[in-house]
Design goal:
The chain has 460 residues and is of the alpha/beta class. Helix content is 41%, strand content 12%.
Amino acid sequence: MGTDSEPAPTPAPGKQPATAHVVLLASPGVGHVLPMAELARRVVAQGDVTATLVTYANFSSAGHGFPSALMATLPPSVSTAVLPEVPLDDLPANARIETRILTVVERSLPNLRDLLASSSPPGGGGGLDRTTTCEFRDLPEPVRLPGCVPLRGADLVDPLQDRADPAYHFLVELAKRYLLADGFIVNTFDAMEHEAIAAFETLSGKGVYPPAYAVGPFSRTCSSGGEKAEHGCLRWLDEQPDGSVLYVCFGSGGTLSMEQMAELAAGLEASGQKFLWVVRFPSDKDRSASFFGSGHGHSDDPLSYLPEGFVERTRGVGLAVAEWAPQVEVLSHRAVGGFVSHCGWNSTLEAVAAGVPMLAWPLYAEQRVNAVMLAERAGLALRPRGKNDDVVVTREEVAAAMTELMVGEKGAAAREKARELREAAAEAWALDGTSRKAFEAVAGEWKKAAAAAVRSRGAS
């Protein structure tokens, strides 16, 4: 096992550590590590608490977008550990992203146990699986989860759409294991998911589920200077009118097919709206092809895959940039008035923090569930109407939805809701905010557990 920093010093004989030590395990992928790192910062800021942030060697290289610079800025009371790489070469080449992630997690369990043993002092799920036999996308009635709006079976997370896929069984077993937890720390806040949080509180009070602590939102803040501030897209935004630009980005992993990229380009052009589009290499096989880093094998420019003449025809109206843009800075810019997003949770919370309405365009994982919620909370949804993954959103649908978000009545309503959510997000971490109180409750439980452990060792 490799570590990115020195381990905490061992107490002298007869002495016991006076602080609680919290181990935070991030799922593979930069989108999971970033908010966990922010959580680690806030954990140790409580005082009398140290933390270890654990990541996976699989998918943790610079080529996978791993935020090594961010990790280097963590406070001294946060140590980091990397679980050794596990083999994945026995998986099929077309294995789903969820299969790859969950296989890494499962195969890393022995290493995680060793880590916990070395760092520790001595001393529901599956309901639909049991009650249904058809594929979830074929369920005749909406799925009603506690505190959530009714969902189509096709809106549930991707692995649940194919019972024969290994990812399905991974997820069902994982859901059952959740019931063994002492509680859940969730990167959300009351105004974002009030009904779900209230439902969880009721059910945990009855002993159905462990308690859930809504402690968010955790999202990155704008940087000051450096590469991000100098990015050309920000200078371009400086020249645009307030609220006039539609930002289009499908996150670190979202990938469009060649056909869908062409339809999106045509829809953008037909809408006449100003736009900033972060263009990634297309893939006709995998909508999450970019999730684990570049790995696309291309040596050319992703902009070369845009329709011929698109960049020239839209010059002055829009700007297409390759691969990456400083998203937090973009969303916070006065010129940005809407966000076409895959609905990844980091992107969602960054948009909420900036008060920018969203046009939800889910691609994989839990994003369709997020899109259903966001269509009510702070935006509009643009979802393929079919049940299959290969359904293409046409240029006419794209243009109509983008126009509605930027200049239509529904867009204006979404913009107002987005402003309200931005204020609620800020209030959640105010001195008496709901998220701050929930976070302090969790920290209090950790401190009590640490104190009890010290007393127990002293009595033995």
